[in-house]
Protein 1
Amino acid sequence: MYSDTHFHFQNLTDDDAEKGAEILETMAADKPVLALDIGVRCDDLLSRQAHMADSIDNISNPEKRARAERMIRFSAGIWPDVDEIKDRENCMETLVEQIEDSTEDGERFAKKLCAIGECGIDHHWNPSNPDGRSEDDFDASVYEGERELFIMQLQLAKKMQLPVIVHSRDAFDDTFDCIKEVGYDCGIIHCYSYGINEAKKFIDRGWHLAFGGAVTYTKKSKMEEMEELLRYVPDDALLLETDSPYLAPVPLRGSVNTPLNIRYIYEFISAKRNITMQQLNRIVEKNCEKLFKL
């Protein structure tokens, strides 16, 4: 199954819906309970849905086309980009408008929005990366604005009674403080990157932890800690994801990731937890079904 995909089909050219259809058709053959297309910008929900519709409609096999339609779900949220942090009030208005438009009666994916996010706090400084995070950009106003934007989305999720997909990188304390301030504990700590102590604090509040391709290329000096963490997370708090097109797992590290690569993450984590891939698959399916009310 595919617990998450960032493989936004608007990244494909207009005449390349066949590529999206090929990926979706292969996914559908595995009969997953969920494939989640995650939002990162305030205005991307409707365009993502439009391109997803084109890709689904290009699946030639009627059974797999129907299965792809059933498995797809969407989230909508604002990743903590500096420009959107600074313009957070307007961005939140746009996000709500997109959600309202997408959930109107008669819309194709009207009942497919199942989460808010990805949203959160990111203090990983690497200006050379595509996200261009620089500590120099984070003066007091941007720092507080980032927290406020996250809190606003937690509050929206609480109002809509939807789970939250939380992006948290090098920012555990701020992330945890915002969650405690809102008092809403329902969702996923996406691409989990902290240790066991932090995991316990999230899990004790009811959060799920999601692991992606990065766990497969943990440094040798850190692998023992990673293995301990993967064994520590209780069954009912565990999720897997691809984060495609990023974080392709070993043996595909460095390539463009797709949801089809989730199998490598299942292989790696099931081995570390000393269970079969089928057992792990059922654990994740049950958690998805409960969390997203499938």
Protein 2
Amino acid sequence: MSIFKTDLKKIMPGFLCCLAIAIPSYFLGHLFPVVGGPVIAILIGMLITVFHKTGTVTREGISFTSKRVLHWAVIFLGFGLNLNVILETGKQSLPIILTTIATSLIVAFALHKIMGTNGRIAMMIGVGSSICGGSAIAATAPVIEAEDEEIAQAISIIFFFNVVAALVFPALGNALHFDTMSGDAFGIFAGTAVNDTSSVTACASTWDAMHNLGTLTLDKAVTVKLTRTLAIIPISLALSFLQVNKEEKEIEEEERREGKEVKRVSILKLFPMFILYFIIASVITTVATGMGISPSIFEPMKFISKFFIILAMAAIGLSTDIVKLVKTGGKPLLMGFACWVSITLVSLLMQHLLHLW
């Protein structure tokens, strides 16, 4: 679907409904950063559908917003990634980041096989837990062609453990006798074991306030978190090629069944081009800042990315049956818990092995 091939009159009613949810959700997200705007937008959308089902007038616009606007959000997300700065400042935490990401993906895959859970939800929980919560899910969901209810379920589970982490980890840091002078150890812990930026910020800021460290822990945690965000690129590319290969086989099999001549499918027709544009955006930011252009020039694009994610989540909430979500949420919740615990333990173990704690 392209905006240039779609009747704006059909899109506008549903789009405006999503916008009406997204605007207050954005401001509420600033008031309650541990929860965040995207989760608030999903919750409002789901609550609205309990009392009022979306009709045919708004359906096309809501569908457009949950899919196409989500693509744009990922593309603009690339403008917030300066690859040089992140890699340079994140070297210290890179071994921890790689092991926690690998751990989460392995745990999610293993539990998916053991419990027989939905593969797309398992992938989003694994990626969301290990990389950067909502942003990672936003990037991977369209690639694996996840349904709106599957996205809502994955986001909700990630959100729940984000809140738990933000509330529990500062006390856990004290119990484990983290260094209270520099903030480095807890900053790395928060940056690797908490997945969403808003919760990382809340967790690290709490530690700074508890030990009068100014913003030392926060600065460290955010840098580590941004380094983790880079993993969106290789994982999205890998998932894209796997999905393309899967679709190629399905098309070829269908042609064989119908007795048609089997033709080689063009990878460009199946490849999710928004992932390529996301990478180009990050390269543009990296090259521009390397040439001396102020990073502040990209701030509006970072804001657009964040708001578009909220907008898309509002649409996903409006497309989600909250009753069905609760009834089918047991196994995915257990998977989210297992990923969260395993990431926490591996992060602590790696810090101990690297003599950071």
Protein 3
Amino acid sequence: MKRESLENFIRDYGKDVYSFCLYATKNKEHADDLYQQTFLVAIEKDEIDENQNPKSYLISIAANLWNNQKRKYIWRKKKANVIYFQDENLEQLADEGLTVEDEAIREDEIETVKRLVNELPDKMRIVILMFYMENMSVNEIATALKIPEGTVKSRIHEAKNRLRERMISYEGQYGYLA
């Protein structure tokens, strides 16, 4: 892979790949390592086809690396407070004209949903992140993780049910979060 191609992939998809790594690992140091390893593997394989959704390919490398390494990471895993949403989302909040109270409630709801997603088992969390955060199709996820499409659909369905149940429970306890 030429240096120029690599720089273009990092520029175009690096932010998304890194964000995925943060969500997957829940730890900045591990995310940094996973991000670097993802691009190292991409360089070694030199199979990125610019016409076949390179972002999806890079995310699949990251997901596979994480699945291969998560046992090693589990015993070292630490909790970290990481802000997951990007600057554009903050600007959107201001543009919507929310009151300070509404904005505080919305931020708390966002953090609650992130916490609930992070509490999902790895198999479900990875699929949910790939589907919703990276906007990958069921087929792309199945191909990336080398599992059947039905398994992807099943994991998404089960994760959504678990999240729904937890959110209803949370709403009952604290009085908000629809």
